[in-house]
Amino acid sequence: MSRSLILQEPTISRGRLFGFAAIVFFSFLLFYLVNAATIPSRFSVDDHLNYAATLALAEQHQLPIIRIDTLEALAPRIQFSNVGATRSLRPPLTYIISAGLYASTESLVKQRAFRVRLGSVLLGALVIGLVFGSAYLLCQHVGLALAAAVVIGLSPRFVILASTNNDDIGAIFSVAALLFASLLVTRSNACVSALFAFAIACGLTLQSKYTAWLCLPWFLFYIAPIVWRQRHKLIRWIPALIMSAIVAGAWWPIWNMYHYGWSDPSGLDNAAAVQMYLTDGVANQRGYWSRGVGLVDLLSGHQSFFGTSLASMVGYLAWIDVSPVAAVYWFYGGVLITAIVFCLYRILFSWDRLASIALGILFTLVGFFVHHNLLRDVQPDGRYLLPALLPMVIILISRMRGTSRSKSWLASLFITLGVGLFSLNYVRVWLHQGVFW
Questions:
Q1: Interhelix angle for 14-38 vs 118-139, to 10°?
Q2: 168 near 120, Cβ under 8 Å?
Q3: Are 67 and 270 in contact (CB under 8 A)?
Q4: Would you say 211 and 171 are in contact if contact means Cβ atoms under 8 Å apart?
Q5: How confident is the model over 162-181, as pLDDT tens digits?
Q6: Which residues make Cβ contacts (< 8 Å) with residue 421, sequence separation at least 6?
Q7: CA torsion sign, 391 to 392 to 393 to 399?
Q8: CA-to-CA distance for 197 and 374, rounded, in angstroms?
Q9: What is the reported pLDDT for 85?
Q10: CA distance 295 to 396
């Protein structure tokens, strides 16, 4: 059996572990709530599109059926960008949660721009809770698990995504849920309850942004060997597992096939047709390729494509014309590079299957990201790569060896650096803007 599948019994009671996880969740929930209340509205060019998609769900209480033949009737309710795109055709996980919280808090909170962000706030805090749980399952050390939560939860770009209305946070949440559920499956030797958790995570993924879809096969590959060994006792649970996945979110591809055709479970073909119709056929001519720039040019450093993308994955404050302090880029860049090298080491010398999954997710998302920029749209924005950061950071921090005392020192170092660097950003933005963020 692979070393990555052998997980020790918890070193603290289950009650205390849930207590620690609850503290982590509610601490970050409060932190993101404060950010959501103070970040100015329409801080990015896409903010109004996300806002409109959430309001459409909150007011209509149903997903819109957007086809070329329904555009005229939907025009007053659906907002399109200048390139014919609308968030209402995207996977709806974040928007459904945001719309539900928006409507249910109307009597408590009057500020609409804040209420529309509550879904992202909740998902962001859940991500950090799942990161804490996943790291603890791997290392059985509360300090290191907390360090992983702090490093991810206080990265500037993640803070922005967890404090504003967007669909990227839904994809990150789904990947975090897949990671946690897959670790439960391997730790429990594929017990039924863990498989139900994984089925629910799969369903959530299928109504999340497509970057999460790209990660799903890797987690299926990760749990496949242990599930196969237990197949005889699990086969009778297959219908219930499939139904759980459908209820959790796999209904969305079925909904797309019903309304847009059996060959379009993702809805992408219909979205492309609508976009081409609204832009007179020029919607797909905005990538680097249409400008005469190819893959070799990007690899050669054209417009600092990869540098800009990685920098924006760590921090994105350009909307207020101020960048994070340089130490933030050095820290997170160092963590990412070290994690990649560490995963390669684990694969070569220990055949750590989880490390191979983490690298597979990273390379898959990078490949998709480059392909999208070449053929579809020039967006050197590293937020699409953030789902890959979760398993990389968790593996790096959780696999550290040493005595309990040395692990505590390492955890303290990561936590101090994470909090300290974020505090420097706070001071920088406060001096520049006079307000937090």
A1: 150
A2: no
A3: yes
A4: yes
A5: 999 999 999 999 999 999 99
A6: 154, 325, 327, 328, 331
A7: positive
A8: 37
A9: 72
A10: 30
